[in-house]
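Morning run. Coffee first, then this:
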Amino acid sequence: MSSETPRIAGVEHTIIHPGSNDDVPWIAVRSQRNPDGSESHVWERWIAFSVEPLYLALFARWDPNMIVRRHGHYSPHVLTVLEGEFSCDGEVCRPGSHLELPLGASFGPFVAGPDGVHLYEVMMGDPRSWSDEPEAMATILAERRVEQLPDPPIDLPAGLKDLRAVFSKGAE
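And here it is:
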């Protein structure tokens, strides 16, 4: 057994305590128009977005009844429900529910509960998403009389291109 470790001199851990990352903004990443004319959003707070190696850790909060398309990521993805609830493929997930999405799999569509949902998520590699089965999204939007709005602009690090607009066009 080798005594060598992967330790890198000068690289240290990071601890973020509740309230200590107030300078990290909540950004809207998904939007919809509800039957009453109001708008709802998925909000994310990217607390760790590393380029080398590539990964993303975030807190998310979804407004009540927010709908998110069926999608996958270009990396393994795990999430845990912290507060509220949502359904994934029709299965209700409440606080403590843990979802694991292996690379190459997709999940959803999702529908946030009447009080919304708060999540903690980690994408272990390229966090950008891909989407398929636009008919699943079209069906749930029509059933709920909700209009999917264009995704709000986001700034990704390291020259990563935002791929979300491709999926919105496919769902139209």
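The first strand starts at residue 27 and ends at 33. Good start to the day.
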